[in-house]
Structures are given as structure tokens and as C-alpha cells.
Amino acid sequence: MKRSKGLLIGLLTVLVVVFVWTTSYGFEAVKFGVISDMHMGMAVEGIKDEFKMTVSSVDLLRSAVNEFNKIPDLDFVVACGDLTLDAEPWNLEILKTVMDELRAPYYIVLGNHDLSPVPKPRKFPGPPPARGVTRSTFVWAFQGHGFEGPEFWWSLDPIPGLHIIGLDTNVPGTWAGHIVGAEVKWLDQDLYSNRDKLTIVFTHHGFVAWHKDDKSMKWKEYAQFVVDNAAEVQAIFDKYPQVSFVMGGHRHIGLRYKKVNDVYHIVHPAICSYPMRYTVYTLTPKELSWVSRDVPSTKDIWKRAKENIIGKPGEWWRGSDHPEGPAGDKKMLKFFEAKETMKGKLPVSFKPKRYGELGIPSEELLGVAVR
Ligand SMILES: [Fe+2]
Ligand SMILES: [Fe+2]
Q1: What's the CATH superfamily of 25-352?
Q2: Could you tell me which of 30, 87, 154, 349 has the fewest CB atoms within 10 Å of its CB?
Q3: 323 phi, psi to nearest 5 deg
Q4: pLDDT, block means (10 residues), the chain with 371 residues
């Protein structure tokens, strides 16, 4: 009996060694799409195309979905929040309908416009946003798309060797970003348990500023672009070398990136506002490369989207270095367009450790066998 138990443990050890050895390098190339800030809004009475091209939003998302569906080897798609205009139940429904047209599996992160009450209720018929859906309704509607159960945050391995995390950074009733204590604790534990896998964290609010005004109090709402406890969360990212990329939205500007310690933070353009783009990534154990492409649409929609981002004088937020007038407009458009980073690549520095280097006690690896 003792001998057979020993043989069993020996056999399991060999299996674990082989498993860890092979899955540490579990993928050669992964292709995935990222979209953000679709702000889906059905064209009910009172809805207009403004900074957010709401009347066009359903067609714009469907157009991006069609583009993803033309990529035969696309492994998955992630949507980085602000999926609806203001958490209206009818917009949740059309969002789900269009997202379900994706051929690839997709995962959902919630944005500040996806949970009631949203700030600044809009003036149009129908239930006001304060009576829109809650976070739990969203989580229920998108079970199996990251969410498994009632939690607002999630993690999974879309393919062996790659770990992805979807954070919830939202605070009901405000545009601000914050990660609550229970989620911070979960993040730390999740990263500890998955420290042999290259990890990408998806979020709505970002952890870094993209413009010098982003954390200033000049414009109250826009001072809330960055998660307010970003330093606490970055300290957790820094504990785990597998955290290689943090990908978010919320800012409605062209893709750009910033390195903080060993982590690359990447912000993504909106689908519903200029420059309306979707992004396709290719990830190998050595490199992350991308192409951020314009969403195919009519010339008229593109023209209006570009005009609307400039807006009428005094009507819309402008960076303090984008004064009103032709020169300021040009500078502002350049900032939003970020044409220089529509294509790019970044190195992957994380190398999964092999068996024996993981620092996982052997009884933890063999926990199932000896219990
Ligand atoms: Fe947004
Ligand atoms: Fe947002």
C-alpha cells in the first residue's frame, strides 16, 4: 500500500513536471482584438450624434465586429468598458446582440457608463439613466464572457500560458476610477496563483495620465481619468513580473503607451468617437505587435465625428495646451489621432520559469495528490 502510494506520487510528480514544462511555453502566437467605449445607444427620440456618435454607434460596433470576423485565426476579443451610452436596458440588449455576432470568444470589462446611477442624467424620453441597469445586471447578461458568478472582476486563461484579468474600476454615480479593497486583495492572490503565465490586465480607467490635464482639477470630470489608488495597484503589478501589459479605454484618444517600471500601460481609442478605431494584437513569447485600424464607415460619419471632437467654442473640454482657434484645433486633433502609434511593437521581457524555479512549494504542486 505504502509502495503503491509512493509510485503514485512519483508518477504524478513526473506528470506535473511535464505539464509545467510544456505549459510554461504554452503558445507560439496569439491574435486578439481590443475595442473600447462603444457607448451603444439606440437612436431613440432626443439622441444625436455629438462627441459620441450615438446615432451611428450600433452601425460602428457592427462594422468593427465584421472586421474582426474577417480574421480567421483571431483567438479572442476584449471590450474595455463604456459599452452603453448610459446603462439603459435597451442599449444593453442591442450591445449583447451585436457582440454575439463575433465569431471569436469575447470578454467584457465594465465602464463608468455601464452602471446606475450614471452622473449627469440625459434629457430624453424613457427611464432616466439613474434607473438604468446595475453592475449585477450587466454581469448576469455577460456570464461566460469573463464573468463567472456574481463578481464584477474576473481572470481566465484564453489559451495555455496566457492569463488575462478583467478589472472593475467603477464607482457608481461618478466618472472616477477606484479599485476597492476586496478587489485589490483578489488581484494579489490571482497573480500569486498564476505567476508562471504571461499576464495582460484589462481595465476601463487607466493607471497613468495621458495628458498633463488628466489629474488636474481644471475640469472636474476630466480630473478623474486615472484610478485614484493607481499607486497601490501598480505596487501589486510590480510584485509579479508576469504582468506585462495593462490595457484600458475611457480616455477616447488614439492608442498610445507608457512604461511604468516593467509594465507597459496601453490606452485604446473609442469605437463611438473620433478617431473611431479597433485594434488587433499579435502576441508571441518575445513581442507584442499591433495595428489600430479605422472602423469602416461612411465619409459623412467620419467627417461629422472629426468636426464633433473639436466642438463649438466653449461647449466641450479642450486640453489647456489646445486653445480655441485653428492652431489649437490642429494640435488637439493631432493629440486625439496619435497616428504615430497606430502600428507598433513592444518587447515581452517575462520568461516563464521552468519547474523547480517557480518558487511554488512541491506540496502545493502535488496538493491534489496527497490530500
Ligand atoms: Fe467612454
Ligand atoms: Fe469611461
Answers
A1: Metallo-dependent phosphatases (3.60.21.10)
A2: 349
A3: -65, 155
A4: 63 55 69 98 85 95 98 98 94 97 98 84 51 91 98 97 97 90 98 95 96 72 82 97 97 97 98 97 97 98 94 74 89 95 97 60 46 33
